[in-house]
Amino acid sequence: MSGQEQKARFEIGMVGLGVMGRNLLLNMADHGFPVAGYDRDPEKVLSLKKEGQSHDVGGFGTVEEFVGSLKRPRAVMMLVPAGAAVDSVIEGLLPFLKQGDLIIDAGNSHFTDTNVRAKNLEAKGLLFLGVGVSGGEEGARHGPSIMPGGHRDAYERVRPILEAASAKVKGEPCVTYMGPGSAGHYVKMVHNGIEYALMQLISETYDIMKRGLGLDERELHEVYRGWNQGELGGYLMEITGDIFTRKDDQTGKPLIDVILGVARQKGTGMWTSESAMDLQVPTPTIDLAVAMRDLSVFAGERKRAHSVYSRPIKTVEGDRTLLKEKLSRGLLAATVIVYAQGMALLAVASKTYGYDLRLEDVSRIWRGGCIIRAALLEDIMGAFQTDKELPNLLLDPNLAKKIMGHQEDLRFVVETASRLGIPASGFMVSLGYFDAYRSEWSPANLIQAQRDYFGSHTYERIDEKGTFHTQWLKS
Ligand code: 6PG
Has residue 469 been placed in a domain? Predict the structure, then answer.
């Protein structure tokens, strides 16, 4: 072997050694892959080398050395903030890459950017994968859910590494090829949209139990811990239970009580809603979750409005155990409705953008590693195993049974919150979506009549094909 060949021995490289990049790289190294990392910040390179010292891990401070250390054809992954940073990393890599090398963007890039980058890089003879990675820091280190999209051959090249690094459920890796182009990033975006909606629903149950039932942190911890052990079990439920046990180091108060109720966002939930609107697929609980984060930011106005509209919240009387049970069943129904909206969006996007997604596979790889992993995903996967073309999870007989058994509880949650003046708007729109979806008759006939009245937009009839217009002002 020449000196050059000896040097070029790492299986995969990572650009961006922040929390996610470093941990994912160390995870790959844990599985026996020689890996190399690059970051502009020498501190980050140093900490990678330190943490990876018992493995075959290289750390580099220049792109040239880093790229030169990789086996050919090269596989370079990047985990940097979405947007301009991704393009600037690609620009920096290009002078050192050769035909057939592969660039993998594992950040939360917008799917339309991924399409443009794939096209540009392919024109230069390079391969490109847009890969969604979910699971936060812990997932990256010990097994995330991975959603790869792009050229199938490119995926096959890195498949052993991704499979080894991914989470496993019943021995199955939580990664599989999603589809061409931006399929992986699209699936990850919708994952995050669902994540927003589930977080919104859980926070509404917190509000109802805190202000409506008067539960303290210890009781809230118990409730969420209990829910996590049943049908509602999942990562978000687990961490919610944990959150209520944590005390603030500075004040000794429950930490949750010193955290400001202003929710921030990086945009992936909003992108999901934007794309759903573009494709004309209703995802109202996701839209609402984005809107409620936005509303939370208007803290000053909320304070003013509070003084104008102040209305004390009376603590709910009655059997509290029963109330908590009803809340949990209502939450389960709303959770199914949220997954139904997200999956319905994926089904349409798949057809429109030619992703050819297998929703059974999407649910399979979401069962472990990712933020929305939950017991319910077994049923969701089952639904798509039974019917690959299922347009909406609400039409699956098994999930329909669950909703039928819980819909009165969902109504109860909405009624209770509305009576108390607690904004359970995630529950409210989920119920509204459900009632509209299950209704054969729709009041949209009136909207059509109004459109035709003021703008001659025409309408269709129930008893005859074609389009019709009425001279509404004719006496
Ligand atoms: C994941 C998360 C991850 C990130 C979100 C946070 O799947 O691991 O979704 O992607 O934590 O982007 O999003 P917001 O900052 O928008 O809440």
Answer: no
Q: Is residue 461 part of a domain?
A: no
Q: Which domain holds residue 170?
A: 3-181
CA 398, 289, 186 angle in degrees (round to 5)? 70
Question: Residue 108 CA: which ligand 1 atom is closest?
Answer: 10
Q: Is 91 a catalytic residue?
A: no
Say how many domains are in the chain. 2
Tens-place pLDDT, residues 38-75:
999 999 999 999 999 999 999 999 999 999 999 999 99
C-alpha 290 to ligand 1 mean position (Å):
13
Q: Whose Cα sits closest to atom 17 in ligand 1?
A: 265
Q: Domain with 15 in it: what CATH number?
A: 3.40.50.720
Q: Catalytic residue among 11, 44, 195, 326, which? A: 195
| Among 130, 165, 181, residue at a domain's last position | 181
The answer to whether the beta carbons of residues 141 and 168 sit under 8 Å apart is no
In 298-373, where does DSSP find H-type helix? Answer: 299-309, 320-353, 359-365
pLDDT the model gives residue 86: 98
- 5 pLDDT higher than 90: no
C-alpha 98 – ligand 1 centre gap (Å): 33
Looking at the fold, whether 89 and 221 belong to one and the same domain comes out as no
What sign does the CA torsion over 400, 405, 410, 415 have?
positive
Q: Is there a single domain that holds both residue 262 and residue 169?
A: no
Tell which atom from ligand 1 comes closest to the C-alpha of 265: 16
Q: Give the position, in ligand 1's atom list, of the atom nearest the Cα of 192.
A: 9
Question: Taking the C-alpha atoms of 86, 88, 93 and 98 in order, what is their torsion angle to the nearest 10 degrees?
Answer: 80
Lowest mean pLDDT among 243-247, 310-314, 365-369: 310-314
* Geometric angle at alpha carbon 240, from 421 and 329, rounded to 5°: 60
Residues with CB under 6 A from ligand 1: 108, 134-136, 192, 195, 265-266, 268-269, 370-371
- Please tell me the distance from the alpha carbon of residue 330 to that of residue 324, in angstroms, as a whole number: 10
The reply to whether 206 and 306 lie within a common domain is yes
Distance between CA 412 and CA 327 in Å, rounded? 8
